[in-house]
Amino acid sequence: MRVIICGAGRVGYGIARRLSMEGNDVTIIDQSMNLVREISERLDVRGVVGNGSYPDILVEAGAREAEMIITVTHSDEINMVACQIAHSLFKVPTKIARIREQNYLDPKYSDIFSRKHLPIDVVISPELAVSEAIMQRMLTPGAFDVTSFVNGLIWAVGVKLRDDCPVIDTPLNQLYDLFPDLKVTVTAIRRDGKMWRAHGDDQLNVGDQIMFIAKRDDVSRAMEILGISASRARRVIIIGGGNIGLNVASALEGLGSTKVRLIELNRDRAEFIAEQLERTIVLQGDGLDSTLLHEAGVKDADAVIALTDNDQVNILASVVAKKEGARKALTLVNDHEFASVSEAVGIDRFLDPRATTVSTILQHIRRGRIKGLYSLFDGMAEIIDAVALETSPLVNKPLKEANLPDGVVVGAVYRDNKVLLPDRDFVIEPEDRVVLMAMRESVKDVEQMFRVSVEYF
User: Fold this and answer.
1) Under CATH, what is the fold of the domain 235-351?
2) In this structure, is the dihedral angle defined by the CA atoms of residues 100, 104, 110 and 115, taken in order, positive or negative?
3) What is the CATH number of domain 356-456?
4) Looking at the predicted structure, is the pLDDT value of residue 455 above 60?
5) Is residue 383 a contact partner of residue 156, using CB atoms and an 8 Å limit?
6) Is the pLDDT at 95 greater than 80, yes or no?
7) b/e per residue, 425-449, with b = 16+ CB within 10 A?
8) How many other CB atoms are found less than 10 A from the CB of residue 145?
9) Which end of the chain is more exposed for a tag (fewer CB within 10 A), N or C?
10) For residue 344, is pLDDT > 70?
11) pLDDT tens digits for 357-396?
């Protein structure tokens, strides 16, 4: 696939890296010569210096032959105009744009991105996506990663096993005999930086990070059986009042039982947030100030969420808050290299907005009837939600006869308004929603399983 990416920042780099690794023909555009040179030297991609909304720059990038344009510059307006030019002049089939300004995303203006106005096929809002991801983690304490599929009915959950976990040293194929209430499919294990698809004879160790797929209503019970029990945070401190901080505070207010304190450095922004929220107490000041943290009630806080636009501030604020008494810390980290630092200094969970954005974009790049996608551990694997077609080699036969690649495991199936957990004798039917995990090397095989192709007839 020939893809043009406008914007060589963290998100643009992450997308270019993933697509080039998969053999796509990628060209990246940015106005910074240094960024273009750096990304061209580090990745197998072409680089063009210039404004991605200029027709001659798009021509140089190969817009006439491109199948997709992804615009992720820091300017919403450049992103939108680049998609418009790509559509009007070069007939680029698929156009994806990152839009940050909430004004553009107001539901009453939803028609703005229609084909007759601004022809953008997919609009990505990182702030909304990250806010939703934070809330999922807040609602599932004890998990380091949570995402949902099929309108929230099927969840993929990541947990780290402690020494009191009752399934330590137990082969996975014995779990259902020992714990018949454990209605989950364990899909992957990560240990010492390595990750693999879970097999029945795998034994779990203390410290393992495992991913499982389950029906939403069974997640809490599954985590209890795995020895992971934690109550939801009732007292929360948010550091940083940008769009994400405001969205999370508003969502926490909606829970009704959570007391929220929000710290924002900019006075005008703090006053604006105070007007927007009903029950949240807004404090103006520095989230690194221990005196202000005590005023916010840090010693009684169940969780602190650091959401400024500075990774170092987020990490330091989380460390200070935990030192002053906060029980848990969830930290926004844009640079993935800071993830290991976050763990080393005692931060409980971190969230990488780049990974969330890349997952959303990959969903629309993958071929086949893909309804949802989530990238795990910087692309080591993907959780994929797809519709099984009559022509798919998966359907109308037991899974044990479907010749699934070794790196693929089916986690759950949605059929007739029911969530089903398959075993080896399970038969997938046409139009089933299949939620599975695929290791990086098996993603192409999964695409082939769910795409419409004459070779299956």
Assistant:
1) Rossmann fold (3.40.50)
2) negative
3) 3.30.70.1450
4) no
5) yes
6) yes
7) eeebeeebbbbbbbbbebbeebbeb
8) 22
9) C
10) no
11) 888 888 887 876 889 999 998 889 999 999 998 888 889 9
Which is more confidently placed, 167 or 73?
73
Kindly tell me if the per-residue pLDDT of 143 is higher than 60.
yes
Q: Residue 12 in contact with residue 82, Cβ under 8 Å?
A: no
Question: What is the CATH number that goes with domain 2-124?
Answer: 3.40.50.720
Per-residue pLDDT tens digits for 100-135: 888 888 888 878 888 788 899 989 888 888 898 899
Average confidence score pLDDT of the chain: 90
